[in-house]
Amino acid sequence: MNAPVIIDRRRVLAGGGALIVSFSLGSALAQQPDAPAAAAPSPPGSLKTSPYLDAWIRIDANGVEVFTGKAELGQGFKTAFQQIAAEELDVAFESLKLTTADTRLTANEGYTAGSNSMKDSGTAIQNAAAQVRALLIAEAARRLDLPAESLQTADGAVIAPDGKRLSYSELVAGNMLHVQAQPTSKLKDPATFKVIGRPVPRVDIPAKVTGAAAYVQDMRLPGMGHARVVRPPSYGAQLSECDTSAVEKLPGVVKVIRDGNFLAVVAEKEFQSIKAMNALAAAAKWNETARLPKQDDLPNVLTSLPSQDTTIFERGNPAVGIQKTIEATYTRPYQAHGSIGPSCAVAHFVDGSMTVWTHTQGVYPDRQGIAEMLRIPPASVHLIHVEGSGCYGHNGADDAAADAALIARALPGRPVRVQWMREQEHAWEPFGPAMVTKLKASLDGSGKIADWNFDVWSNTHSMRPGGAGSMLAAQHMAQPFAVPAPKPLPLPEGGGDRNAIPFYNFPNARVVHHFISEMPLRISAMRALGAYHNVFSIESFMDELAIIAGADPVEFRLKHLDDRRGRDVIEKAAQAFGWKPDQKPPPDRGYGFAFARYKNLAAYCAIASEIEVNRETGRPRLVRAAAAVDSGQVVNPDGLINQIEGAIVQSMSWTLYESVTFDDTRITSIDWQTYPILRFNSVPESIEVHIIDRPGQPFLGSGETGQGPAAASIANAVANATGKRLRNLPLTRKRIKEAIDA
Amino acid sequence: MMTLKVNGREHQVDAETDTPLLYVLRDDLKLNAAKFGCGLGQCGSCTVIVDGKAVLSCVTPMVLLEGKQVTTLEGLGTIAEPAPIQRAFMEEQAAQCGYCIPGMMMRAQALLQRNSKPTDEQIRAELEPHLCRCGTHMRILRAVHRAARLMDTAEASPAANRSAR
């Protein structure tokens, strides 16, 4: 055992005589991120902010339990975290219990976002598990009076050379250890991994495919009432009159709640609440204001709004000569998360304490917002994450949680379930922001990029709670909370400027972020944030330049990239696809390629695709895609493949079909008819995902890495098939047809 | 009071006749598999089988169901004893968030009951009413093909012989 452990404190759990192993990281706890170099390094991942090992691993008479402050959103990390803990602890995978985000039980890991769960929580669990195992060995060594080096661990026990076993539960229960963990852990040699790196079947799938309760939507608490909200018809609409008396007499209606512009009804049964909601909506009279921008003119509207302009990257080498310069503008509309299950939450207000079961991505920040809205201390609010339908960012989850809390407060003692309707999710979710990018670049005499200018206009990409003002219910109350001032998300991860800085080596480059604080439509975080549009722009423009340079797109990229891992995924994707520099696609088909390293600091992903375009109708069809991904040490290869497959298919849908529509007052894309997404007739023939595993390297995450490369790869294939460059998302059949006919 | 036959059992249900089947399944019978997705018949999440046919339960009022047999995903098998379609989805790991999956499975089940060897094209056409937002489509297609094979072979569990009416 390398990591010396210093006994610090212990804590005995009441009941059952079980003990929680508790470690304090003493001095490390006091470290600030920008502490001087002389200070001890802080522990990795979320151990930095939640250093106690018992925030992650607890052992009692019943076995080992693992905790994460992250929320399972369908990415499958519960399985991956369990694999990590099983590996580093030497405990059977099946025997582990895993608890996810809960403000009374788990660490505060902020939001489950940014493809950071593996990096933050996975790393914390790995290191915590390794240190707990070291601690158990040390305790066994003391009891057996044997050197720690002579002991081994297997299946939840420490084993002595003579075969004597001391179970972890025994060791913890029988000992009173005070332990302080180290900033570094003795992790297992990846060559010896038995659980990490295996395609362990996901722990949540059996329940989901047999109809067991798996979602917050499936919760049924005793005495629970069913609530529906009547939302205003448009942003800023004011409720002028609403005679609720008829609604109150409808069958099953328990209560009508009106608080300013917040209107809701609770009924005994679910369909009764829907009927009452419809009656309430009919009784409500609203004053609306026409204040939405012209959808057709959106790019001009955005670039004309006041912006805070920051040069976020600049590199100069005046020695480079310039031969040819081109410019292009790329745009992205507002796009919807479009969860298949509209948002839902259950709340229960008892004796001044509020409990909310929610599919939020951040139980702690959401708790803060709800506490502020209800004007009660955060300690009186308990948020428990329960899975919902996939969210892909900030959808209606937090708003539904606030709705449930506000309604439940009006019915003390009675649990209330709020279920949003489809139209509400589509109209009121915070959309992925519209964006504009303007690019200008020059080639030198040798066909290499000599200079590069990139300007991006965007709103913030996070209006997530923290404060109550981020939640619709709090905005609509009679004493409303103001929407907080938007802030750009800081680099290096960035928001609107995420992936705006080129990952390629250009001798001259300048990147300007035009941050727009005015938000004509309600927006927030959507999978990959600005990286979706920035990578689409950069990688489309790379192809435009490659064509002018007369270079093969793959070779052109490699020519501008030194990063070895980046080159590896590009070469792997090209090889898997069968990419050849002199390739000629069949008639009406095109090949496209794109690459990015997500956030310029996380996973690497390259995607090659083949598109077929119907020249008569303009209809594009993704025929096949081949991707390569390097996400560092792979924990569950099938889970990683599932994420990348999903990213390609979802990004294809965004890229070819999707834009939020609106008139001067209302959002008009309010269901799947008016906001069409891909259906099975557009599903490709094949998607291949190849993993480049990096044993022992840090976890890089994977949830968002595919969005940008998939979009650009498809756009480049459309250009290759038609000879026409489309720069405005989505690349609809109509736009492609118009480009072909132009 | 209406009589509703679900998964082989008769239930007395106290619901108004215009109540869509989905709410009776979820609210009165406490079944989870049929999901609320849109309430408009646009996404397929609520699909169940009625007299052998895939039906969108969110837009099917109770008045149309007198004397009919309703099968939900719960009626096909259990975690311990999964039906071939359930085994196939587990083996192909054909879910991300999984919310749309039960509806997909029910329509696939209805297809496989009337056509035990569907082509890929037939499966895609059949699943057209269904939306998946996570992009799990490739796996869903593989799972339906696998279910077809499982139903055809003796290796399927005893639940294999249970069919939805």
From TrEMBL, chain A:
GO MF terms held by the record: oxidoreductase activity
A Pfam family reported for this protein in Swiss-Prot or TrEMBL: MoCoBD_1
InterPro entries to which the protein is assigned, alphabetical: Ald_Oxase/Xan_DH_a/b (IPR000674), AldOxase/xan_DH_MoCoBD1 (IPR008274), AldOxase/xan_DH_MoCoBD2 (IPR046867), AldOxase/xan_DH_Mopterin-bd_sf (IPR037165), N-heterocyclic_Hydroxylase (IPR052516), OxRdtase_Mopterin-bd_su_IorB (IPR012368), TAT_signal (IPR006311)
Signal sequence coordinates: 1-30
Keyword Cytoplasm part of the UniProt annotation: no
Highest taxon in the source lineage: Bacteria
SUPFAM superfamilies in the cross-refs: Molybdenum cofactor-binding domain
Chain segments annotated as transmembrane: none
Keyword list, A-Z: Signal
Aldehyde oxidase/xanthine dehydrogenase a/b hammerhead domain sequence ranges: 210-290
Keyword presence, Signal: yes
Record protein name field: Xanthine dehydrogenase family protein molybdopterin-binding subunit
Organism this protein belongs to: Bradyrhizobium australiense
TrEMBL record, chain B:
Pfam family, one: Fer2_2
Domain 2Fe-2S ferredoxin-type: 1-76
PANTHER family the record matches: BLR6046 PROTEIN (PTHR44379:SF6), OXIDOREDUCTASE WITH IRON-SULFUR SUBUNIT (PTHR44379)
Entry-linked InterPro entries: 2Fe-2S-bd (IPR002888), 2Fe-2S-bd_dom_sf (IPR036884), 2Fe-2S_ferredoxin-like_sf (IPR036010), 2Fe-2S_ferredoxin-type (IPR001041), 2Fe2S_fd_BS (IPR006058), Beta-grasp_dom_sf (IPR012675), Diverse_Oxidoreductases (IPR051452)
Superkingdom: Bacteria
GO molecular function ontology, one term from the record: metal ion binding
Alphabetical keyword list: 2Fe-2S, Iron, Iron-sulfur, Metal-binding, Oxidoreductase
Designated name of the protein: (2Fe-2S)-binding protein
